[in-house]
Structure formats: structure tokens, C-alpha cells
Amino acid sequence: MEIKLLKTGQRPSDWLQDAMSDLAFNLRPEPERARTRFPQNALERRSRADETSFGQDGLMNIINREELKQKLEQRGEFTLVNCLDEWMFREKRIPGSIRFEKVFFQTLNPKGEIIVYCSNPGCTASVMVYHQFVEHGFQNVWHYPGGIADWEDGGYPMEGEHVH
After folding, report:
1. Average pLDDT for residues 26-55, to the nearest whole number?
2. What homologous superfamily does CATH list for 42-153?
3. Of 90, 72, 87, 94, whose CA–CA distance to 146 is shortest?
4. pTM over 0.85
């Protein structure tokens, strides 16, 4: 909390006006951030560079919604890892997901395909887990940056305690 003192010659009403002006400025809502739009299918990709994105520590392999949907429909051999906390995992997840646990570094095949995701493009949980897998020697790790929000936007099924 900031305490302001009256300046010499300043009337209390002037001070109150300044304080209210400061308060109104600080309460002004932040402008809405533009959502990053990820290519939704292979046709929207313009180059091989569109298949990777920058994470916190460098390049990441990314997979889009349509590609993930195809993999799930084909029942391909891969592990889909939800990187959210236990409560959020129970509430809503992409079908076939398992919740991330550190024991995976010892139990999953380092050459097997792993796809990580979290809630939305702004969520960093899956970015951190992606990098942990890579640091532990996993060679086929993919990031689904759209996460649950993008999956739902596509109208695809969800599973969990709060899915109707």
C-alpha cells in the first residue's frame, strides 16, 4: 500500500482526486492478448519450420489437433501425457491420456513416441515436461500446444468427472 502525503498548498480534495485517478488507472483491465493461432492441419503448414516451436530452452516438435485426432483414431502406439495437476486431470482430459508422473522417466521407453499437453497455448506445464523428457534422453517427444482448449474448440470428445 502506498501512502501519499499532501503537498504544501494542496487541498485535500485535490489529493483525493489524484488518488482516485491513480486507482482508476491501476484498475483498468489489461488489453486482451492475441491468441497464437497454430496450424490446424498439414495443409495450413507453410514450411517444415511450422512443425517446431520455441519453448523455454529451444526448439520443440509440435503436433496439431488434427494430427493428434488421427493418431487417436488409428490407435497408434504412443503415450499421451496430460501435464496438469491431479484435480484438473480428473476434471477434464483428452481421451486416452495419462497424468504425468516423474516415474515415467524410468518406466517409459525412451525411443517411444510421447505427446505432452496441458490446458491451452499459454500454459507452460507441458513445455516444462517436454524439456524434462528430452533431458532424460527421450528421443521422440511431441508437444500439443493447443491443449484441452484447442481440443474442445474442435468439438472433439473429452473424458473426466465434469464432462457431460
Report:
1. 41
2. Rhodanese-like domain (3.40.250.10)
3. 94
4. no
